[in-house]
Design goal:
The complex is a heterodimer of chains A (294) and B (373). Helices cover 30% and strands 27% of the residues of chain A. Chain A has seven helices and 15 strands. In chain A, helix 2 packs antiparallel against helix 5 (198-206), helix 3 packs across helix 4 and helix 6 crosses helix 7 (273-282). In chain A, 46% of the residues are buried. Chain B is an alpha/beta fold and 373 residues long. Chain B folds into two domains: 22-218, HUPs (Rossmann fold); 235-372, Rossmann fold, CATH 3.40.50.1220. Helix content of chain B is 31%, strand content 24%. Chain B contains eleven helices and 18 strands. In chain B, strand 16, helix 9 and strand 17 form a beta-alpha-beta unit. The longest helix of chain B has 22 residues, at 344-365. The chains are: A alpha/beta (294), B alpha/beta (373). The interface between A and B is large, with 87 and 104 residues. Strand 14 (232-238) of chain A pairs antiparallel with strand 10 (173-179) of chain B, so a sheet runs across the interface. The structure holds flavin-adenine dinucleotide. Flavin-adenine dinucleotide sits between chains B (170, 247-249, 273-276, 287-292, 304-306, 308, 310-311, 314, 324-327, 330, 343-345) and A (16-17, 127).
């Protein structure tokens, strides 16, 4: 039985922890903000690598972005993926999530020409767009089963082409059984990431990365990519408005903390009387509320 | 709900494109909400969205539609009636055994079919694990625009388009996104970002049954089991009426007990900043902000929290915000209603004592006296 052929979609993103807004002009200061591999994608990579550790097979990392996004793919190679494809073309500029899902789906089909793709992994979302829309979009474009927010993959059986995953929801975990091929968006914190070993790092630095332009990615219809293929338009970008008035601060002398707190409590009570009324019921031992029997 | 007030210069692009609006798109009318529900109930975000949908529809002079679907008739009926009470004019109700428990495939199919049939202008979903999964699939299948995690929804006067505002660049800026030449215009909004509307049992609306052709045999993905979260995972901060939140200013993990005591006295929950979570002082479930929960309690007490924008976006919708911080220039005082400049480690226990005193006083005598001894 052959091991699974896996594609992991990764993105290079600006390290948003280091983005600052100019305090006077309110514009983004982009200079010197380093680019990193989207942290959520590390969990997708790890999940794919663990499958390969168990079942063998092959992993292709796929990234759409400008030429310098190659760095994200080098990182993926250093962690142990076998092959890397950068989909890069000026025609992709201005793509929103719908156009991006079109381009990625098309590139995945091209990868599938070499060998059918069994599994596609993506991170839960990126830290720059934060939408979580591209993974599900790619699944729909490819007609693959979508398994989102997956936190565990207890069963993957290549013979029967079946997979069981745990899908996280706010109330609990859904145990879903599905068929390959499918697309899985991986929840963060599902596993400890691995570190690149020195030989892998050397290999990653040397290995050629395939760069596909639009044609190589199999895209003919220009109306589906870039600005043209993007239904959403950015109307305006602006700094969040600050509330006009600042907090009313309680003035107090160093040794009068108690008085200050009591003043504060008065103000809270005046503003939220029902809340304070409830305290007598919810607090202090017995339950003051009537119980209604069914 | 406010007008998206941009300078005309910024909207030139929008106005120019307006001329190109395909007449077929003008057929699309109505503002829809997908109601997220299960046998236990409806996710409150759906009601919040209905409130917003009502305001948008009134501005557009159109109807509010609600999509309510499930596997069995039972609780569905009452959820349909509730949808009307929260603002829907028309409820599209679908019952089919395949729709018991959420799965992407049948729900995406249902929603796509309903949209194709009834052509709503706007379609809103909660930014939950279900809503995001479903919204992205539907938007891709219908090839239309979807804006995630909006913090404000308005109508752009010139283009009549949905102006969906969301944070961008790590929350440092906001951007307003329009879907001009595609319908429906889709958006997701996180729970508690919008206020919950008043329930009006006197409202009337139509409940319309919709059939769907689905068969379990055709469903590739099967739902084997549902494992509810245990204990702490069940915590739902977004529903708490009182939140006592702390940040790096509390200095040590142990000091979080000061928050716990005050929260207990107030009958509330403890929240935290990402910095406190990353320090390992508190569980990530309690993180409030852009990468954590959005909350809207009646009372939010922020102790030792600087009030960076990424934290503020998660709590600024709270009714009453009280800040305790040693630094009089901390940005938290820009969003707080009341503040005390001082050491949280000293002030928190005093406040807890005050609250407990209040509780005893109210209970024993009904008097509104608050002793400070
Ligand atoms: C992409 C991105 C996403 C993010 N998401 C989130 C998020 O979801 N939630 C979030 O909270 N943050 C988030 N952050 C981080 C955010 O930018 C801030 O760094 C964080 O909120 C700061 O936490 P803090 O207020 O606890 O710490 P600090 O900023 O260090 O502030 C500590 C405050 O405590 C005060 N203080 C010190 N000692 C005392 C004392 N004894 N008594 C009273 N006050 C005292 C100080 O004056 C200071 O104001 C995000 C950042 C990025 C880049």
């Amino acid at each position: 039985m052959r091991g699974p052929n896996i594609v992991v979609c990764v993105k290079q993103v600006p390290d948003s922890a280091q983005i600052r807004v100019h305090p006077v002009t309110g514009t983004i200061m982009r200079q010197g903000v380093p680019a990193v591999l989207n942290p959520y994608d590390l969990f997708a990579l790890e999940e794919a690598l663990q499958i390969k550790d168990r079942l063998g097979g092959r992993i292709v990392a796929l990234c759409m972005g400008p030429p310098q996004a190659e760095a994200a793919l080098r990182k993926a190679l250093s962690l142990g993926v076998d092959d890397a494809v950068l989909v890069s073309d000026r025609a992709f500029a201005g793509s929103d999530t719908l156009a991006t899902s079109f381009a990625l789906a098309s590139a995945i089909r091209q990868v599938g020409q070499e060998q059918p793709v069994d599994l596609v992994f993506t991170g839960k979302q990126t830290i720059d767009g934060d939408t979580g829309q591209v993974g599900p979009g790619v699944a729909k474009r490819l007609g693959m089963q979508l398994l989102s927010y997956v936190c565990r993959i207890p069963i993957l059986d290549m013979d029967s082409q079946s997979i069981v995953v745990h899908r996280w929801t706010e109330k609990g975990v859904q145990v879903l059984k599905s068929k390959l091929p499918c697309l899985i968006t991986v929840l963060e914190g599902t596993s400890e990431g691995r570190f690149a070993s020195l030989p892998e790092m050397i290999r990653a630095a040397r290995q050629p990365i395939r760069v596909w332009n639009r044609q190589a990615a199999g895209i003919e219809d220009l109306s589906k990519i870039g600005l043209k293929g993007s239904p959403t338009v950015v109307g305006k970008v602006f700094a969040p408005s600050r509330r006009a008035e600042r907090a009313e601060c309680i003035e107090w002398e160093q040794d009068q903390a108690e008085k200050a707190v009591s003043l504060l409590w008065e103000k809270i009570r005046a503003r939220q009387p029902e809340l304070v009324e409830k305290l007598s019921g919810d607090n202090g031992g017995e339950n003051g509320q009537e119980r209604v029997s069914e | 709900m406010s007008e998206s007030g941009g300078k005309p210069a910024e909207r030139k692009g929008a106005a120019r494109r307006k001329a190109a609006l395909d007449p077929r798109l003008a057929e699309y009318r109505g503002v829809w909400v997908f109601v997220e529900r299960d046998e236990q109930g409806v996710h409150p975000v759906s009601w919040e969205l209905l409130g917003a949908a009502r305001a948008l529809a009134d501005q557009l002079g159109s109807e509010v539609g609600a999509v309510v679907a499930g596997g069995a008739e039972e609780s569905l009926e009452s959820h349909c009636r509730d949808a009307v009470a929260y603002g829907a004019d028309r409820v599209y109700q679908t019952v089919h055994p395949v729709l018991a428990g959420y799965r992407n495939e049948p729900y995406a199919k249902l929603l796509c079919e309903l949209v194709k049939k009834h052509k709503p202008e706007i379609l809103l979903l909660g930014a939950t694990s279900l809503g995001r999964d479903l919204a992205s699939s539907v938007a891709t299948t219908l090839e239309t625009g979807l804006t995630a995690d909006c913090t404000e929804l308005a109508i752009d006067r010139e283009s009549r388009a949905l102006a969906a505002t969301r944070p961008t660049f790590g929350g440092n800026l906001l951007c307003t996104i329009l879907t001009l030449n595609y319908r429906p215009q889709m958006a997701t909004v996180r729970p508690r970002v919008l206020p919950q509307p008043k329930k009006d049992h006197g409202r009337s609306g139509q409940i319309q049954k919709e059939e769907i052709d689905l068969s379990e045999e055709e469903m590739v993905t099967k739902l084997l089991e549902f494992l509810p979260h245990a204990g702490g995972d069940r915590l739902d901060l977004s529903l708490a009426e009182v939140i006592v939140a702390g940040g790096k200013g509390l200095q040590r993990a142990a000091n979080f007990s000061l928050l716990e005591e005050l929260a207990r006295a107030l009958g509330g929950e403890v929240g935290a900043t990402r910095a406190a979570v990353q320090a390992g002082w508190v569980d990530v479930q309690r993180q409030i902000g852009q990468t954590g929960k959005t909350v809207r309690p009646k009372l939010y007490i922020a102790a030792g929290i600087s009030g960076e924008i990424q934290h503020r976006v998660g709590m600024e919708g709270s009714d009453l915000i009280v800040a305790i911080n040693t630094d009089p220039n901390a940005p938290i005082f820009e969003v707080a209603h009341y503040g005390i400049v001082g050491d949280a480690l000293i002030l928190l226990p005093l406040l807890t004592r005050m609250v407990r005193g209040q509780a005893v006083a109210t209970k024993t005598s009904g008097l509104e006296v608050c002793s400070s001894s």
